[in-house]
Amino acid sequence: MTGPVSSDPQIPTPGEARLIDGKGFANRLTQDIAEDVRAFYARHQVTPGLAVVLVGNDPASEVYVRNKALQTHRAGMRSFMHMLPETTSQEELLALIARLNIDPEIHGILVQLPLPGDLDPVAVTNAIDPRKDVDGLGVVNAGRLALGLPGLVPCTPLGCLLLLKSYVGDLRGLNAMVVGASNLVGRPMAQLLLREGCTVTVAHIDTRDPQVLARQADILVVATGCSGLVNGAWIKPGATVIDVGISRVPVENGKTRLVGDVVFDEARHIAGQITPVPGGVGPMTIACLLRNTMQAARELVEGVGDTV
Amino acid sequence: MTGPVSSDPQIPTPGEARLIDGKGFANRLTQDIAEDVRAFYARHQVTPGLAVVLVGNDPASEVYVRNKALQTHRAGMRSFMHMLPETTSQEELLALIARLNIDPEIHGILVQLPLPGDLDPVAVTNAIDPRKDVDGLGVVNAGRLALGLPGLVPCTPLGCLLLLKSYVGDLRGLNAMVVGASNLVGRPMAQLLLREGCTVTVAHIDTRDPQVLARQADILVVATGCSGLVNGAWIKPGATVIDVGISRVPVENGKTRLVGDVVFDEARHIAGQITPVPGGVGPMTIACLLRNTMQAARELVEGVGDTV
């Protein structure tokens, strides 16, 4: 769907990693999708539509949801926001999803997590029609990914994979390590890397001596949420490092700044290529949400899927 | 469902691995299931029923299917065999599965693979009601496994896991390597080991220097179908080795014998514990099919699942 990154593919200066420009890549991807949206409208007189459901008033979730709506609109898609009170019952939420499932104007449905109170995220996620599950978090899409079948893939690992394929090229035969085994990032990331022919190791909270294993990895994807967990001792010289973590930490003068799970100032002297935080993986997530919505619209309207 | 293996847990002689007695374990598991079947009948007046569908006349498949029927009967379950001609159409096969899906006497459905001709194994497998998918090969059960939800797990990796839990105990924090990335064994095996808290590496045909990675593994599961692929140089001293492979190879005098993917005579001097071939993993597969059928019957009749 998008071409390779156009930034200068020069060999990095020894001792200084090439920066992986996720922000620029995401901007180009969004532009490509906007073109796809126009062409799709010209063919079918249908504009892809994304419904985002937010329950409750979590301020961080409100920011995410608003940003998703803005980017959706920017790509020329229709954005439908459903903001429900914290008192919403499971039945009410499931009834809304049932309506969105059969609404022909809606091609993607996203329920912002976490859900407040007693709402069951597994039941809610799996109530979404798998063809509209643009977060790729339901059982059917997870199963399709696990079995190597086409489907909708979770947005953050998909964004990481697009960056890797653009900056590394063919991944076949490379050693990859994924640090963190969440359903949102680590596990689907491992599946995607396996699909590309990597030898994949998944490390997590129970892993002993993770840095010994990490130092064998040509590709290191870190998604733990522990800021500064991965220092220079984890990194194989020349490796490509994808830092999914993003945490706000205090610095001097009472100020704060955003940092990743990787100690960037150590890693950039050892890695061959590395994502900065912010501006690396972050912008890719929403761009991949739009990509998934475009894919879902194609599948629903044309009956053809689109794999990574 | 079954207790730990009762074979003598003695420390192995240095230089000689303890044999993992899959045959004995499978026999005890089948006896336990037979007791569960009797207790289930006493509670519900329902006998678990397994339908096995065989299309065509592949001699190996006929042996497998007959053996499955015999073992099912031995465990006190009802066995239903559907042997269809090679000329069976996709529509006829799907129509049979649809009937079995709604048949209250059937709790498990297994379609013997490979299917002949143009029959689509993915479409056929996914036509089985996920609650009756006792091979665990459908998208829904693969997704449930990938997401850490309860479900029906493919029989061979489940059998390997039961042996590992019995012979190793708590697997948390151990380094595990799975050699082979098939949907039938390698991939679900990796998911199961991850669920137990192992650090999991999946190696396959594209892996470079697999023996270097393998020598770091406390648990080595080999499922490639390449007889003799894994020699002593792959094995960490004291590791537990599970050999899923089974191939018939020629020996002198025009005779043949069954061997695994592991060079047993080298491995047994390095490994701490190892499955023989035959008599290791093989007998566990059918026992786990019966276990899954019992689990499916419970889920269908009582509405409660049973996880590993």
Automatic annotation (TrEMBL), chains A, B:
<comment type="similarity">
    <text>Belongs to the tetrahydrofolate dehydrogenase/cyclohydrolase family.</text>
</comment>
<feature type="domain" description="Tetrahydrofolate dehydrogenase/cyclohydrolase catalytic">
    <location>
        <begin position="20"/>
        <end position="135"/>
    </location>
</feature>
<dbReference type="InterPro" id="IPR036291">
    <property type="entry name" value="NAD(P)-bd_dom_sf"/>
</dbReference>
<protein>
    <recommendedName>
        <fullName>Bifunctional protein FolD</fullName>
        <ecNumber>1.5.1.5</ecNumber>
        <ecNumber>3.5.4.9</ecNumber>
    </recommendedName>
</protein>
<dbReference type="InterPro" id="IPR046346">
    <property type="entry name" value="Aminoacid_DH-like_N_sf"/>
</dbReference>
<dbReference type="Pfam" id="PF00763">
    <property type="entry name" value="THF_DHG_CYH"/>
</dbReference>
<comment type="pathway">
    <text>One-carbon metabolism; tetrahydrofolate interconversion.</text>
</comment>
<feature type="binding site">
    <location>
        <begin position="180"/>
        <end position="182"/>
    </location>
    <ligand>
        <name>NADP(+)</name>
    </ligand>
</feature>
<dbReference type="GO" id="GO:0000105">
    <property type="term" value="P:L-histidine biosynthetic process"/>
</dbReference>
<keyword id="KW-0378">Hydrolase</keyword>
<feature type="domain" description="Tetrahydrofolate dehydrogenase/cyclohydrolase NAD(P)-binding">
    <location>
        <begin position="154"/>
        <end position="299"/>
    </location>
</feature>
<comment type="subunit">
    <text>Homodimer.</text>
</comment>
<dbReference type="GO" id="GO:0005829">
    <property type="term" value="C:cytosol"/>
</dbReference>
<dbReference type="GO" id="GO:0004477">
    <property type="term" value="F:methenyltetrahydrofolate cyclohydrolase activity"/>
</dbReference>
<feature type="binding site">
    <location>
        <position position="205"/>
    </location>
    <ligand>
        <name>NADP(+)</name>
    </ligand>
</feature>
<keyword id="KW-0368">Histidine biosynthesis</keyword>
<keyword id="KW-0511">Multifunctional enzyme</keyword>
<keyword id="KW-0521">NADP</keyword>
<feature type="binding site">
    <location>
        <position position="246"/>
    </location>
    <ligand>
        <name>NADP(+)</name>
    </ligand>
</feature>
<keyword id="KW-0554">One-carbon metabolism</keyword>
<dbReference type="GO" id="GO:0009086">
    <property type="term" value="P:methionine biosynthetic process"/>
</dbReference>
<dbReference type="Pfam" id="PF02882">
    <property type="entry name" value="THF_DHG_CYH_C"/>
</dbReference>
<dbReference type="InterPro" id="IPR020630">
    <property type="entry name" value="THF_DH/CycHdrlase_cat_dom"/>
</dbReference>
<keyword id="KW-0658">Purine biosynthesis</keyword>
<dbReference type="GO" id="GO:0006164">
    <property type="term" value="P:purine nucleotide biosynthetic process"/>
</dbReference>
<dbReference type="GO" id="GO:0004488">
    <property type="term" value="F:methylenetetrahydrofolate dehydrogenase (NADP+) activity"/>
</dbReference>
<dbReference type="InterPro" id="IPR020867">
    <property type="entry name" value="THF_DH/CycHdrlase_CS"/>
</dbReference>
<dbReference type="GO" id="GO:0035999">
    <property type="term" value="P:tetrahydrofolate interconversion"/>
</dbReference>
<comment type="function">
    <text>Catalyzes the oxidation of 5,10-methylenetetrahydrofolate to 5,10-methenyltetrahydrofolate and then the hydrolysis of 5,10-methenyltetrahydrofolate to 10-formyltetrahydrofolate.</text>
</comment>
<keyword id="KW-0560">Oxidoreductase</keyword>
<dbReference type="InterPro" id="IPR020631">
    <property type="entry name" value="THF_DH/CycHdrlase_NAD-bd_dom"/>
</dbReference>
<keyword id="KW-0028">Amino-acid biosynthesis</keyword>
<dbReference type="InterPro" id="IPR000672">
    <property type="entry name" value="THF_DH/CycHdrlase"/>
</dbReference>
<keyword id="KW-0486">Methionine biosynthesis</keyword>
